[in-house]
Amino acid sequence: MARTPSSRSPATRTPATGPRTGKVPASGAAAPTSAEPAQPKANPWGPAVQSEGDGRILVGRSFLGRSEAAKAGTSAKDEYLTLRLANRHGLVTGATGTGKTVTLQVLAEGFARAGVPVFAADIKGDLSGVAALGVAKDFLIERAHEVGLTYTPDSFPVIFWDLFGEQGHPIRATVSEMGPLLLARLMGLNDTQEGVLNIVFRLADEQGLPILDLKDLRAMLAEVAQSAATLTAKYGNVSTQSVGAIQRQLLVLENQGADKFFGEPALNIADLMRVDRSGYGTISVLAADKLMGAPRLYACFLLWLLSELFERLPEVGDPDKPKLVFFFDEAHLLFDEAPKALLDKVEQVVRLIRSKGVGVYFVSQNPLDIPESVLAQLGNRVQHALRAFTPRDQKAVKAAAETFRPNPDLDTAQVIMELGKGEALVSMLEGNGVPSMVERTLIRPPSGRIGPLSADERAAVMAGSPVGHIYDAPIDRESAFEMLQKRIEEKAAPQEAAASDGGGFLGGVLDSVLGTGASAGKAPSGTARSGGRASTRMTTTEVVVNQVARTVASGLGRAILRGILGSIRR
């Protein structure tokens, strides 16, 4: 959506606590008040950059030969990412320090400017600067000039998220939503242990026991261990050793902070697909610096999120622009040691989620980090420099060069090793989805700040967030743990009554169920009836009553499970 310079100038920005949320107020700019409204001020850096054109994102400018040719302006060609082809996915790769994060920021800003919401994992914290107005430094102005632009500072609506709830709003998912496949990978279970975990989920589904957090899962595992003999006859071998191994892995997860991730309120996918009042797509930034200390949790969370989008979003075919774009940084963590069943699922989701209007962009150091079956689905590519110091590095350079459509004017494999910082080999889909010839490209400068926000600036953005009141406070409703506790108490209560009132057990049941007062004339407490010992066996009436109660409770549990945790059964 086109914007006039005055509408984006620092003086007219509303502070983060006002209606325009998710942005850092311009430094030194006073917040407008109702008594003294702010006056529009001309942007000192010229008109807003609209070089993307309709339905395109400007990535940079390519030049035949080395980047020094940019100064002479010879054989220049602008490189664009076409929005209607952006849901064909993409890949950004390159060695450390070559400019991948800046390229990610350029693409995220382009999508947001076009009204497309973005979700991105922020490994180093640098991406948080997109919420703040860019600073016109000399090297940014020079790069903008080299690619034919006038540098124009801008800021973008941002929502900060954090699985640990420290640098952003907490993201939570229920254990039931995660499912046994991803959970088994998260805990590093073997096939036998994964089989037991599947039995746990099956039993919970059948008995209407929602598994929302780790204490629910621990309670279900204890229930399975106690009923191992019965369950073995129905589902196959259930060993207490396997249950114990899963319990130990749960303890490891808790030590890594996973107990903060599992629970409610669970993330609503719609909150990742917001557009602000001025038409900019919201950029959801996941603080992942601490999360990198638990790489399996990071990987399983991202795969769960991708799966949730695939299952929840409707089919839209090929829209004019994506409904949502995901950037998965450190993408190799998604696939390291992943079993084939999981890789097959990821490939299927990546292949089919395109029709849901979702674009997936993997960011990694090496194209070999991505399985070939997934790599084949990634049409839009940006390759920063690679260094060939080892045989594996040389193989990576050759593999990266061979994935591009050849350009007769470039030795792709050689150029990959010569690229400077902020340069990349770029090939985007064009026309009917055909990859363009690879071009050596100067990446355009981002409009937002390059570098992280301060703690105070991040806090100001979070204070004005439209979702803070939804997710900041945890919810602990009745679930498997509480339901199983009630079962134990219900089983213990009759036994306690029988112990304190010998022979009065049946009468107490009839009193409570039929309301007849049948036990009014029974023998005193502790006296055996008819000279016999007090019976603890359940009568036919008790069996019927308990069965009815279990049936009603199970039905209610399944209704809650399927209504609130709709992602489980679709």
Automatic annotation (TrEMBL):
Give the highest taxon in the source lineage. Bacteria
Q: Where is the composition biased (Low complexity)?
A: 10-22
Q: Which Pfam families match?
A: HerA_C
Write out the ranges of the annotated region (Disordered): 1-53
The record's Gene3D superfamilies line, in alphabetical order, gives: P-loop containing nucleotide triphosphate hydrolases
The record's annotation in SUPFAM superfamilies points to:
P-loop containing nucleoside triphosphate hydrolases (SSF52540)
Q: Where is the Helicase HerA-like C-terminal domain?
A: 72-568
Which PANTHER family does UniProt cross-reference here?
Answer: SLR6007 PROTEIN, UNCHARACTERIZED PROTEIN YJGR-RELATED
Name-wise, this protein is DUF853 domain-containing protein
| Species assigned in the record | Xanthobacter autotrophicus
